[in-house]
Structure formats: structure tokens, C-alpha cells
Amino acid sequence: MVAARKKTAPRRKRYAMPASVSAALKRRGLQSAYRARPPYQRNDYLMWIAKAKLPATQQQRLTQMLAELRKGDVYMKMKWQPRNAKRKSVKKVARK
Known about the structure:
The chain is mainly alpha-helical. The chain has one domain (about 20-95). The protein has helices at about 20-25, 30-35, 40-50, 55-70, 85-95, and strands at about 75, 80. The chain has a two-stranded antiparallel sheet with strand order 1-2. A hairpin with a 2-residue loop joins strand 1 and strand 2. Helix 3 packs antiparallel against helix 4 (about 55-70). The protein is globular. The chain starts with 18 loop residues before the first helix and ends with a helix.
């Protein structure tokens, strides 16, 4: 008998952080907010910025990423909460 292989999605390319992004995070004090995001979000932001063809578009995307990190509850213009925050809100509701 042959064991069935589990289908897995192909892995996405990992993007290295450009020095300009690292410097922008450091200047604004957002390194910890960036590191607190899940790995897929960090990689998506870097890919999104890197794939922009024009420098002006790269800057717009970097600006959006920084604003979303500062706000904390947004990811690519969508509402987002860390897993821990979701669990805490569920526990509060259950206690009432």
C-alpha cells in the first residue's frame, strides 16, 4: 500500500528587506510593529514594494505599509487583528 501524499501549496519566494525599508522602519520606531506581524504579512509587504516598477509607486507602498503598521489593525487596507487580540475579545464576551 502506498501512503497518500498530502498536497501542499508551493512556497512563496522570500523577499529580503531592502535597506531603505529597514531605515524607514527604524526612523519611525516601527521595527517592533513590523516584527509582530506574521511572517506572511512581512513577506507580502516586501514583495509588494519590490514589485513596483516606478520609484514613486515604491514610495507610496512604503508609506502605506508604515501607516498600517502605525495604526496596528490594518493589513493591505483590510481590517486585521493579531490572533491574541481576537482570543482576548472572545474571552471578554464569554464572561459577561
